[in-house]
Each structure stands twice: as C-alpha cells, then as structure tokens.
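pasting for ref
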Amino acid sequence: MKKKLLATSKCAVMFLFALVLFLGKSNNSIAQTNTQISISGKVKDNKGNPIPGASINVKGTSQVVASDANGNFKISAQNGESLVITFIGYVTQTILINNQTQFNITLAEDSGKSLNDVVVIGYGTQKRSDVTGSIVSVPKARLSQLPVTNVLQSIEGAVAGVNITTTSSVPGSQPNSLIRGQNSITASAGPYVVVDGVPLTKTGGSLNDINPNDIASVEVLKDASATAIYGTNGSNGVILVTTKRGTTGKPVIRYNGYVGIDNIAHILTPRSGAEYLQKYADFLKQTNQTQTRPVPNIGELPAYNAGTTTDWVDEATQQGQIQDHNVSISGGSPDVKYFISGDYLDQKGVVKGYQFKRVSLRSNLDVNVTSFLTIGTSLFLTSNNFDGGRANLLLATAMSPYGQEYNSNGSYTIYPMNPEQLYTNPLLGLKTTQINRTTNINGNGYAEVKFPGVLTGLKFRLNTGYTYFPERSGSYVGRLANDNNGTARSYNASTNSYTIENILTYAKDIKKHHFDFTALYSAQERKYNSTTAGAVGFINDELGLDNLGAGATQTSNTNRDRYGLNSQMGRLFYSYDSRYLFTLTARRDGSSVFGANTTKHGIFPSAALGWNIMNENFMKNVKLFSNLKLRLSYGKTGNEAVGVYNTITNEVSARSPFNGVSTIGVIANNLGNVLLQWETTKTANIGLDFGILNNRITGSLEAYQNKTSGLLLNRSLPIITGYSKVLENIGKTTNNGLELTLNTQNFAGKDFRWETMFVFAANKNKIDDLYGDGKDDLGNRWFIGQPINVVYDYKMTGVWQTGEDVSKQDPTAKPGSLKFADLNGDGKITADDRTILGQTAPKWTGGITNTFHYKNINLSVFIQTAQGITRNNPDLTYGDETGRRNTPAEIGYWTPENQSQTRPALSYNNTLGYGYASDASYTRIKDVTLSYVFPQHVLDKLHLGSLTVYASGRNLHTFTNWVGWDPEQTTYGRGSGNSGANQQAFAADWTNNYPITRTFVLGLNVSLR
C-alpha cells in the first residue's frame, strides 16, 4: 500500500509539474516583451511616521520586498502591474503602476484588523471574517511573553472551552488537555495535535518536543465544522501549531533566555517532634493501650534522647532551578526564506533527583523555485533527558521526625524507624541508577504548485512527514537501595511514522461570489517495536545496568505493532458578497484497528452557515457595532479509540508446573470483537462574533451540544467463559456547553493603555445509556442521567461526640467516628446510603487577563479559576496507618477535648472506605509578567534591533478550601501504580508524587540588526 501510494503521488506531481511548465511557458513568452522598471518609495502611517517591515509585493508575482527602518523600499515591476502594500494592523493598499517610478504611500489603521487576520483552519488558511466554524486563536502575547517549557502551559485558562490541568510539576511533564469536556466514557479524550500541517499525535512524540520559542501561532478547532476535516482524529478537538518561518530581508539574529527558581507552592508540613509525640500518646489512649516509651519504635529513641529531629520533607526537597537559552536566525530573499533555531533547557526539580534537560534544533526553509513552484521543509530534532534516581516525597511525609537518616558510615539507613519496616528511607531512590531518554527526529517537507493562466487559483500541495522516535530507559537497584539481590531492567523502543497528504485547492471569485474548494487524499502509518530485558541476582553492584548478563535470573520480552489510516476529504467554502457564508465538509477514514467482519471505514460530514450581519445595508448607520456575525454548524465525527489488535482474540504465555517441571503454556488474555466500529459524535454549534464601539469591545458567545453513541465500553462476562469482559459499541452520552470570550480596551491614552481579556466556559455531560437496559453500573460509578465522572459515597455530616446516641443511625459508631447521613432511613449506615456528592470535572472555568502599558513598561496579570469540582482527598484518606506514621500538622484529629466535627479519632478505622469527598474548586493567580521594552534611541546607541527585559512569576497564590498539597494535583496512595513504573518519566505511580511548584524567572529578549 505504501509503495502504491508513493508511486501515485509521484505520478501526480510529475503530471502537474509538466502541465504547469506548458501553461507557464505560454504566459512567459508574452510577459518577456514587457520592460522591467525600477520603482522606489516610502511607506508611512497617517501621522507621517515611517513603517518599517511593510510588505511590498508585485501583484500576481513572487516579487516582494520589505520597507527598511525608514520606511523606504525599492522593487522592479512593469507598467500595468500593481503594487500590494500590507502591514499588520493597517488597511492593505493596492496601487496601479502607470509610468510612475516614485511613490509616497500612507497606510490607514485598520479598526477591524482582527477580521482581516488570517487564521489557520486545517489544510489551509482563511480570513477570520470568513470563518464559519468554532476556531480560536491563542493570544499572541501568551505565546511570546510567557517563559514556559510546554506551549499548553500558555493556553491554560486563556481559551474558552479548553481545559488544561497541571496534575504534576514533574520537570518535563506535559499538562492534560481537554477540549469542550468529555464525550467518551473510557476512550481517549485528548485533542489531536498538528504541527505545520503534519500530525504530531500518534507518532510517539508530544507537544513537549516542540520548543515554545519556535511557535508563531496556535489555533484550537472545537466544533464539528472545524474538526471534521480531520475525521476520526478530530473527534476530541484539534490543536494546530504553526512554527516561525523566514521573512524577506537581511538576517535577524535573536536571543531569548531566562533563568529562574522553583519552590513548592504549598507544603503539607508533617508534624514536628512535639506534635508527633502527642499524636502517639493520643493514639495509645484512644485505642486503650499502655504507653511504654515516648516514641513508637526503639530506633527512634537515640534521636529522642539527644533532642534532635529530622525535617524529612526538607531532606527530600531542594531549591528548584530552571534556565532556557534560545538562539534563532531568520531572513531571506523574495525567493528563499529561512528560520533556524537552537534551544537548551535545563531544569532541576524541587524534589531531589528529578531533572529535565532538553536540546532542540529546528530548520524551516521555503524556496520559490519558479513563479509557480514552491518547496519547503520543517525539520526538527529534540532530545529529552530525565535521568536520575529520585527521592520519594510521600515517604518523606510519613517519616518520624526522630527517624535515623544515616548509618554510622554515612550511608542511608534502610529503615529509619527500625524495627518498623513499613516505611523505607525516602532518599534510597537517589542510590539507584535510572536512565530515561527520548529523541524525536522529525522531517516534514512540502511542494506546492500554483497553476497560471486559465487555471489561476488552482494549487496542488504535497505534504510529507516522517518521524523517528527512539526511547531508552533502564534501572539498577542494588544493596544501598534495599535490594540485596540487585535488580536490573533495560527497555529500548522505537516508533517510526510517516504521513503523506495530497491536497488540491481551487479558489475563484466571480463578481460577488467566492468559491474555495479543498480535496485531500492522505495516508498515515505508525510502526512500534520494543525490547525489554531484565536480570536479578548480581554478585555485586559494580556493573549493574551495564552487564545484565551477570544476573542469575534472566528475563526478556519483545513487542511490535502497526497502525494505518487512509483518508479522503473534500471541503467547499462559498461566500456571497462577504455576507452569506457556507462551508460543507466530508471526510472518509479507513482505520486498521477495526474488526475484520465490519467496514473499517467511516464517513464524517459537516455543514456550517455564517452571516456577516455587519455587511448588510441596514447596518451601515448602526454605529454601536463594528462587527456582528452569526455562525451555525452541525456535523459528525468519530473516535476510533481502540488499541492496535484489540479486536483480535489472543492469549499470553504463562509458566505452570507440570509433572514437577516448569512448563510454558498459554492462558486467555483478550476476547476480540470483529464487529467493533467507531464511537460517533454528532455536534451542533451556534456562535455569535461581535465588535462594539469601533472594536473597543470584541468577543464571541457560543453554545454547543455533542451527542455520542456507540461508545467503546467493556461489557462484563461470566468468568466461566475464560474472559471477564469484551469491548463493544454500547452506550450514549450528551455533552452541552456555553463559552464566552471578551476582549476590552478599557483605556487608550497617549502613554497609558489598559486591556482586559476574559474567558468563561460552562460544561455539563451526562450518561444517557450504558448497556441498553437502562441500568446503572454501580461498580464503575456510572449512572444514567449523571455526569461521566462523579464521586459516589456516603454523605458525611460531622463526627460523633461523647454522649450522643448512635443507636438510631449508626449502631457501630463510637465517639470520634465519622457521622454519615442515613439517607434511606433504615436506622443503620449501609451501602444503600451512598449518593452522588459531585462531579470531578469543573462545572465552569474562567480566566481574566489585565494588561497595563505605561510608555515602555508592560504589566500582565492573569487569574484563573475552576469551580464546581468535587474530588476524593487522598491527603485525608491515608490516615496514620494504626499510629505508625507521621501525618500533616494541617490535618488534625478528634479528641474528647477538641470535639472536631471534620476529622475522626486516631482510632477510627474507616471500614466503610469513605473517600473524604472535598471541594476542589480554586482560583489561582496563574502568572504575572512585568517587562520593559527599550526605546529606539537607546537601541540605536547599542546597535540592536530590539531589547526587552522581564520578570515573571507563575502559580503565585491559590485561593481554595482544599486541604492538601494542591487541588489540581493528582496524589497517588502508597503502593499504588505499576511496580515497574519508576522507569517511566511521569508514571502514574506512588513513587512519583510531585507537588505543584511556584516559579520566578528573569528573562531577556534581544535581536541584532
């Protein structure tokens, strides 16, 4: 299939190239009879100030120059041709050349400039005023002025309907992203990411591999009209990233860099020595035990007698540091433009051992080979390094302040609270060898042919992309880390992906009618293979990971899979007089993951209407509005959401004793379903874009509804069949939402300006059906008519106090036990008294950015909020484990004296498994940036093009009722997760609990002339 596709693409390009040569030759023979003349001029604004960097283009040709620092330009053209002069923020002007060689050009400011902005829409661009789908551009200031390691951090809270959550600040980790809530119950809900027109998702890489300094723009596609062109890949929304390209002019060298520090935003401080002793005494008293020593363990007595304590959290943490240095050079001629950049990021985490180093290189090139043929490349290489053993923060919070950190020889004590062996030293991980590295080698290229003559407006573009993504991880745990045998593990994997896209576009204007057609044929393929080797039983720890063959017991495993997707797409855009807009899209995808007994193809259509009300004659005398557009769309998308080979029934190998000999056999693993197909989501969207008071107030208001059917859910099976579940297309959900974006220019004076950006999004999903019988799934906490993810538990009403009568409500309770509501009124607390206490996703989110400018000083303050969140609180549920661990000072406990109504007694065992549902809503001062832009007269003296210095703070303060490290952070209970997950960079594992951090940086942006 791959060879056939390559051959087809090659033939298509050769045919089109020959046709263009034929048509272009006839045109050129006529054009050569005309004489080129030299034209010069100056571009200025309506105040007479020169405009440097304005683009002067000979219409219909590739000839283009930029005005210099004084607004002057020179260009060659012919009589009868036209010059097109453009500059961002000004009205484009077209001037006919009629025997004139000198021009003084004045550009007028464009009060509706945002409407003429060109936005990326997927497989092309479009004027914002013509957009019919729900497409949001991330504010440029968020992309260029925030020192972040991942571009998603810039989007967090700044785009309505895009929920970015930072569940961990592990260096190099990527935030979670969700566009317009959750449609599927168990399938992946993350958006599809496209960089420079070529997919990044499904190649092994992520946005963590894209240097934020290289990004020029980010667009988010949200409704079906906007995402249907990506078919199954667009079911959860699409993020389009466009990197910086070269521009006409002499080379410009830029340096962007910053250095900073990280601190834990909020420390859940363990009890001090005195508080720990009191807790132990209270525990023994509440459990009717006799106290024989002041501390729980003999190993704690030496430190107690010496009056010394250890701050274990302080020992496990450190001052975090971060630095980033980026150098780029861009420029070019009218025919060759280039952008080259290199970046080095180095981050030391706040928990000892955590670190992240990233080196990235990028080269973007665009070449006008002829007047009709343009080729280009987008190449980048990113190397990520997460090496190093790591301290365990959760264990650090559990340690007794009287625990012994070191042995007499200076090595770490294995069991600081000896003979207590439930808790090991939280610093043992620093004595392990840990390797974790990834590399993303990505090469994208394109060739675009523009047809002249009678075929003007017709273009063919060939996009190709190839990604090689190798991964390597390994570990060795030896004697110093409490493994007397020595255990080694090595993992090597690689992902190879390619994308080929053939895109044909045709644009035509007939009087007031505008037509724009796009057709696509594409193919994607991904191949993955891995090798895992392990060994246990080493004589010593000298070689460890470097000699697995020295281990007494050897293990190995290999894995390989392949994924393929073939697609065809057509999109038609029509507008009449820039008033009435219509977009019709259909995409057909064929995926290799679906069953053999059903079609592997799906068709995803959409339609959208737009009405530029402001362009109507009856609005000409309406001074209040400067923009008013109504948008309607409806469409269908699909989510394949099936792992490779999951439709196939398979077994796994297993060892079993037979006649006294260990024999390898097979056992049931996965029951396949050859009838599996797509999850299908039908989306309706209505939007209103507006501008008021000459665009002093602009924004958009949108409402949407997503209805998803054929959910990919596991149906439970009787275990006697040999399988416990099977994946089927069952279940339905509904997802509704409302979004508001508002931009205001509050004050615009000569020296002082104040702008505000406000975003708001409300979302509610619910389960309409699960298994076709109208019944809830209590085991998975899925309820018909309720949100997908809810907290289902007992309703806590307080704590039983001494003297209260428990017989009529909870006969098993004692003073200090949690008090729960008897919802069914049967006089006892049972599982039937559980109820839905809230949802884990926010009911609404918002963000407000205030930006102040005073002369050359700029101040930006961004506040983010997420409300209506309910989560079980793991910082409350772990308790003190029968008095054997330290607990946070912030989390108290009941005594007959304090009569707490929120915390139970130390003797309470929580036999009901109550999760301590808590309000996780929060409002956060997300980032504040103060910058100074040096004025032109200073730059002239320094011979610089630009110079900006800034100071920025992130996660400065959080307002919340949450008791714990942070309401946004995911905390894993002790012993949870994959036992080998510490080999992964950001494993969902208890060894990787990592708090949200507060960051302060100083930065410098400078460009050379």
